[in-house]
Structures are given as structure tokens and as C-alpha cells.
Amino acid sequence: MATLELHSIVKRFKDNTVLDDVSLAVDDGEILVLFGPSGAGKTVLLRLIAGVLDADAGRIVIDGEDMTGVDAEFRGVGMAFQNFALFPHMDAFANIATPLEARKTPRDAVRAGVESVARLLKIDHVLTHRPRALSNGQKQRTALARALVGSPPVLLLDDPLRNVDAKLRFEMRLELPRLLADRGATVIYVTQDYKEAMALGDRIAVMGQAGIRQIGTPEEIYLQPAGLDIARLFGDPTINLLDVRPSRDGQGIHVALSGTRVELPAAMEPSVGRACVAGLRPETLHFVKAGTKGAVPVTIEAETPLNEKTVTLARTRGGREILVSRPAGTPGPDHGEAFLAVDAGSVLMFDKASGERIAAGGPAAPRKRATA
Amino acid sequence: MEHTSLIERILRGIALALVVVFFMFPLLWIFLMSFQTNETILSIPPQLFFTPTLQNYTALITGKLTSAAGTLDIAFMRNLWNSVFLSVTSVAVSLLLGVPAAYAFARHKFRGSEDIAFTLLSFRFAPPLLVLLPLTLYFQQLGLANTYFGLVWVYQLICLPLILWIVRGYFEDISADVEYAYRIAGHSWFATFRKIALPLAGPGIAAAGLLAFIFAWNNFVFALVLASADKQPVTVGALAFVTASGIQYGQIAAAIVLSIAPTLALALYAQRYLVEGLSLGAVKG
Amino acid sequence: MPAVVPTARRRSGLRISKRALPYVLSLPALLVCIGILVPFFAAVLYSFQRYRLSQPWNRQYNWGENYLNFFTDPGFWNTLRVSLVYAGSTVVLELLLGLGIALLLQKRTRLNNFISIMLLMPLMTAPALAALMWKLMTNPGFGVLSYLAGLVGLQDFRWASSPSTALFTVVLVDIWVYTPFIMILLLAGLRSLPTQPFEAAALDGVPRSFVFFRITLPMLMPYILTATLFRLLDSIQQFDIIYAMTQGGPGDTLTVFQVEAYLNFFQSTNVGRSAALLMILWVITYFLSFVFIKNWLRLRERARGEA
């Protein structure tokens, strides 16, 4: 119901520049996830949008209206805090009702509004409790209800699932997308959990180094990370990173892995002759029979069955560790020698010095060469 | 500590008993004295058992002291009223001025805020006469000499630093997010101050107010320098009373009891906050 | 679901710009204080003037004369000596006594808590009234303390009315009033100390004197420093107890800074000398409060951190 634009936002605390020239545009009704390690400025950015902090430079535009310098109460945003920030001296009902009361909503409408959002979030039975008497999950839902009740066109959610237990986090991760979609609000969602980011975001903005490192759909972030740091943040088990130096001969571009030649797509051209880091997602590696063309020989070190997948730790001839993930229940070697097929099209190549990704990989690329 | 010897326990007990006697005995003695007639008081050795009389208190309350020599007017009730009025008004003014300032110092680190806060604190430690003596001259020029207004103003020196520094601590203890949440919900800073900050700092504000009241009540030098008889609080009045009533020791004792009873009662009531208040928020009890 | 209410974009009403708000909030308090700074600067000027209330026509700047005169003025040296002796003896005695009592009451038993609350009563008694109470108790005619002194052979112990015992008497009253202050601060400090070092020491059978001097005292030091400086700042300026008890007498036995300045002003109407005395006292307290505030801040941060 509203668009949100940030133009060249700068925020400093003393000598520490937290946000340096950050620009961002969020579409009407879009869910944008701000993802990044703690200290990356996610929460600060959220507070700048909410208007409780002031940027040192830059403009914030909500629905075409310049909100720079406008007080928080006039911005029409809703916000849920990581630490809930409930009013300890008011019961849950009064907590949730505060946005409605601010607009002088008639008493009946306040009651109807609070009760309906409370029912939706399943906290209608604890509305008379003070925050002190609420469980963590109920606190989190109360905070969420308070942010939602006024149907604000822009909704800011600061890691709302951070401080709740695993079970509730799992439930909410399923519930939230529907809840937010129903609202139709433009949402900025902060999280440090990449699964949450992938599950919720229409787009993900990865924050780091006082700005946005990369912005894109979850697929783009996962399959075409802009740099090593981002590739490492997404995926479980984490991406395999191997130092390589691609070279070219008459047959094409290739790297050596475990003494075996692994062909690379022609698009990897810029990486030739440079010190690089190859990124191999554990799920893009497959065990194949001995003798398969281009198969990389490894030694199986250990196997860890997780719920939905099995992770194997293998070692190359050169002594480098590689994690391989396959769906649980599928057959695979559990000891001794084994052979890995590397899907050349999904190899991510990064410049070792800068950490930036060099050439495009991605499954969409039809230039997959038969290596299997 | 469980294996302390019997001797040590006895020694500790004796030491504690001596401490209690030293600190409690004067209060007890004056309290007993206030129920004694002058004859009992003057008898030697001092009497522990006597028939209590309320005559000292009635004399103070009616303001008439009847003796063989005739009747004497006592203005003590007036002093008591002055103490109540000066302390209550000073604390009220101080809260009105100090609480918003404490909020500003706690929430907005603006330029010069720390300097101002410390200047206020330093008033607590400057020699009061340094300000009071020139003030007597200024107050005469301004027409503030011997007025409640002037006294209440100067009493801010006692109340304001105390309230500012204690209440500031309480405001700092409120999570800023809680206030942000209320602002984002659509409320003005003033509504946030009134509905969130004030209620949450309420106990601290009350405690600071009570302590400021105690210190204002117990103050002596301000009124000694700036007030004449009709505006003097009990601390100064009692001293004048000693000279005026000469040998009416029972009444002096009764006056002392009436003068210290309110602060002692308040102190016992607010004892949970005393440590924090006495150290200006440096130590929590 | 309530219909979406368009956000009211009111920008009128009680709106103060964010930048101005803190200044607006603290302005009234500031104005009151500025009013108090004026007499302070007046006092600075007075201290450089020949200024007697009884001879207003003779008022003029004599610059450092008031201060220079102090060098040859036995009255001044007496004031300095008495003030320092008073402050020194009260603070040392109160510190020792307060620490001792705090250690006695350290354990959180119901009796100890009750006693520590009772001991607050002297501290909450107005010092001027406390002085009056002790005056009644040391009255040579009927005072219970005079009687008790007589019982132990001090028939002619004249308390505050004799130059040889006046200082002892006012120090005693100061101790009665203010020891609880040190006690309550140190008690709070003792009770906030972490327990592990003490448990470890007890397990290892470390002697208790060693525990006290090597663990308890060092850990308690910030509290001791704050309490001591706090008291020192007040004690060097003591007025109430001494004035209410003896008005500086007998003779000039107890003419500490503030009492001497008060008498100079109101009795000899010598404003210049009075102001110069107070300026010297102010310089002393200013430096003390500098040290004090540093310690105090550290403690305050610690207390806030625990909250």
C-alpha cells in the first residue's frame, strides 16, 4: 500500500560510520528482508525509516512523500522490536490498542480491532495480562499485534523471531508469510537467519560493511552471490570454498581438483590465471560410480545424517575437506574411496583477493557441459 | 562463617548492642524527656520511670506557655507550618523543573548536557554561604528578603541536584525502545513522556521527592540567613526557641520530637530508596 | 479488520523541533541555576573588595588585600586548623566506625536489616536539631550525659562549653549523625560484592585477616572512596552542628570556615573578609569534588549496569 525509497542514507555514531550511502527502493506490497550479521546496521536502518533516529544525510521517501526529519508519529509505519518493547505498565490489550488510540479511534472500533488481530495471532485469551505475565511467545505475538493493528502501509519487523524458542519460530515462519500477504503492507523484515530470509523475502538485501552488499531475490542471492562473504552466509551446510587457479588449454577452461581435471564453462574466462576461490554448494555435488568421466576421487571421512538430508565429509587427494549433501534416504558411500561429480555450471568463482564473484554460474545457464 | 566460635558471637553481640545504644539512646532520651515535667527533668539522678504528661505538647500546640511567671507566646506551630510549606513547595517546584530536565539529560545527549548536569551537581558541594551571603543583599534589593518565594527559590539548591540525578538514573533505566514503540504507534513526544516515561520512572520520582523533602526539611543554614522569625522552619525556630523559653526543657524536647518525627517517618517509609538517594544514585540498595 | 485510517499528518499543535526539545525541557531548571550563579560571582567580587556593611561609603576594590591579610592573621590560621582537624577527625572516625558496623551487619538476617534501618534515624535527624538534642543531654544541670560523666569520675566535664572539650563534643555529634551514612553505603557495597572469591578463600582455609585486607578491602575501595570524599566535602563545610551547639565558641575554639564567614558577615559586617574565606573554602571543595565526581561516576555506572 506504499512504496518506500531510501536515497543515499548516511548514519554515523561518533566516528563509526554505520551506514554509508545506502539507497534502496521497496515496491508496494513487497516483503524485503534485510539480512546480515549483527552490527551490520540493519536495526539502525529500520530505526531511520521509523523516524526514531535521524540520518546524517540522505532522504527517506514513503509513498512519494519525503519523510526526512518528520517525527515518528507522522510516518504511518508499524514496527515490531526484537526485544518486543512492550509497555510494562499496560496489559496486552492496552499495548495492542496504542496505535488505534493515537488516532482517536472510537472505543468500539478499538475493541473490535484489537480483538480481531488478537484472534488472528491466537492471543485473545491473554489480553488482560501484563507483559510480565506473558510467555515469550505471547509477548512476541503481542508486539506483532501492536505493529499490525493499525494496518500501517509500511511494516518494519526487527528480527521478531529472534527471542522466541525454536518451536515457535518454526510455526511463525510458516504463519508469517500468509499473515503479511493478507495485510498487503510493504514490509521490511530484519533477520540474521538465512532460512527465515529465504522463506519470507520477495527480495533480500544483504547488509555488510556499512551498506547493502547485494540485493535480489532469494534465488539470486543463493545462486549468484556477489561475494564470498555472502555465499558463506547462505546455505546449510555452508558452501565449500577451495583455492584454485583456473587455466586454459585447447580443450577449454579447467581447474584441477584431487588431481582430476574439472571443466569450467566458457563464461569463466576472466578467472583464467588468477588466484581464485571456487565455491561448490554441498548439494550440487553428487557421488558417482568409479570410472565416470571427470569424477573426482575423494576419501570419505564421516557421515552426519540430518533430518531431511545426509551430509558427508570427504577429503580430496590434496587433503582439502569437502562437504557433500544429499537427500536423506538416497544411497551413498559411507566409507573408503568414492567419486564426486562436479556440476560445472553451478561452480561459483570468486577472486581471492577481493572476494568478489568473477563469472556467472547458475543452473539457468544452458551451457552446462556433460561431465556426469 | 557458620563455624564462628561462641566467644566471637558474644563479642559481636556486645559490639552490636553498644552500637544500637549509642545511636538510639539520644532519640529515646529526648522522646522520654518530652513527656516529663520540668521537675522530673531537673531531678538528679535522671529518672527512667515517671508519670508521663502531655503538657509540653499541649503548650506547643496551643501556643501558650503558662507558668508561674505568666504566659508566654510560643510561635512553634508557626515554625512547623513554615517547615511543611517550604519543604512541600520546594519539592513540588523542584519536581516540576527537575523531572523534565532529568528526562532531557537521560534521553537526549545534547551539546553541553553533561556539563550542565555536572554544574548542577557541583551546587550540591559548594559552600552554601558563598551563595547565601550575597543573596541576602540581593534579596533586599529585589524585595525577596524574607519571602516564601525567595526561600523556595534558594531551596532549589538542595532539591534540584538530588531530583535531577536520581530521576535521571531512573529514566536511563527505561528501555529507549519502549518509548520508540509508543512514538511509532503515533503518539507525540509529550504523550510518550506522560504515558510511558513518567509512569515507568514513577517509583524513582516518588523516592527522589521524598528524599528532597527530607533534606529540605532538615536544612538549617538557608533559613537562618534568609528568613526572619515568621518565615523560619523548625530547624531555625527550635534554636530560637531554646533562647526564648529559657529553662522550659520539656517543651524544647517536645519541639524537637515534633520537628524530627516527620522526616524519621518518611525515611522509614522510603528506606528502600535511601541508599540510592543519599549517594545521588551512585549506589543501589 | 479496521479500515485503513489515513495517517493524520498533523504538524501543528505542541510540536517542538527535535533539536530544541532537550533545551526546552531543561531550560527552566537552568534559569533557576543561573539565578544562583549571580550571587556566586558577586561573592568573587566581594572577596576582592574592602566592604563593610557598616561603612558602605568605604567600599572599594583592594584586590588581593583580603587574601594577603590572611597570612598574618592568626584568626585565619585558627579557622584553617580547626576546619581541617574537624573534617579529618570526623571522617576518619566515621569511616572506621561505619566500616566496623557495616561488617557487623553484613549478613542479611532479619535482625541486621532491622538494625541497619534503625541506624538511619540519626542520619535523618536535622543536624541542627541533633545538636540541640545533645545540648540538652550535656546540660551541666540536668543532662544525662553530664550525670553519666560524673559517675565515671569526670565531675567537671563541661562538654561544649569548655574550650578543651568543645571540639570533642561537636565531633561526637557529627559522628552520631553521619556514621550511618558511611555505614549504609559500605553495607550496600559489601552486599553487592561477588561471593566466589570469599567462598574460594574459605575453602582454601585462608586466614580471615588476609581475606579482609587482600580481598574485602580492595573490592570495597570504590565505595570507601566515594563515601569518604562525600563526607569530607560536607564535613569541611560543617556549619549546622557547630553553630547550633556553640555558635563557634567558646571564644574562637570552633570557628570553622563557614561559621567564621557567617560571624564575619553578620557580626563584624566584614563582607570582604567573609567572601575571601568562603572563596578559599570553595577552592578546597572544588578540588575535592573533582576527585569525588570521578569516583562517584564509576560507581554510578556500575549501579546502572546492574539494573
From TrEMBL, chain A:
Keywords: ATP-binding, Cell membrane, Membrane, Nucleotide-binding, Translocase, Transport. It comes from the Bacteria. Residues 4-234 form the ABC transporter domain. InterPro entries: AAA+_ATPase, ABC_transporter-like_ATP-bd, ABC_transpr_MalK/UgpC-like, Mo/tungstate-bd_C_term_dom, OB_MalK-like, P-loop_NTPase. It holds the Pfam family ABC_tran. One of its GO terms (molecular function) is ATP binding. The keyword ATP-binding applies. Belongs to the ABC transporter superfamily. This is ABC transporter ATP-binding protein. It comes from Ollibium composti. The lineage of its organism: Bacteria, Pseudomonadati, Pseudomonadota, Alphaproteobacteria, Hyphomicrobiales.
Automatic annotation (TrEMBL), chain B:
InterPro entries: BP-dep_ABC_trans_perm (IPR050901), MetI-like (IPR000515), MetI-like_sf (IPR035906). SUPFAM superfamilies: MetI-like. The chain crosses the membrane at residues 12-32, 84-106, 118-139, 145-167, 204-229, 249-270. It is a multi-pass membrane protein. It is found in: Cell membrane. Coiled coil: none annotated. Residues 80-270 form the ABC transmembrane type-1 domain. Its main location: membrane. Keywords: Cell membrane, Membrane, Transmembrane, Transmembrane helix, Transport. Belongs to the binding-protein-dependent transport system permease family. PANTHER family: INNER MEMBRANE ABC TRANSPORTER PERMEASE PROTEIN YCJP (PTHR32243:SF18), MALTOSE TRANSPORT SYSTEM PERMEASE-RELATED (PTHR32243). This is Carbohydrate ABC transporter permease. It comes from Ollibium composti.
From TrEMBL, chain C:
Its main location: membrane. It is found in: Cell membrane. CDD domains: TM_PBP2 (cd06261). It is a multi-pass membrane protein. Residues 80-292 form the ABC transmembrane type-1 domain. The keyword Hydrolase does not apply. Keywords: Membrane, Transmembrane, Transmembrane helix, Transport. It holds the Pfam family BPD_transp_1. The chain crosses the membrane at residues 20-48, 84-105, 117-137, 166-190, 211-233, 275-297. Belongs to the binding-protein-dependent transport system permease family. This is Sugar ABC transporter permease. It comes from Ollibium composti.
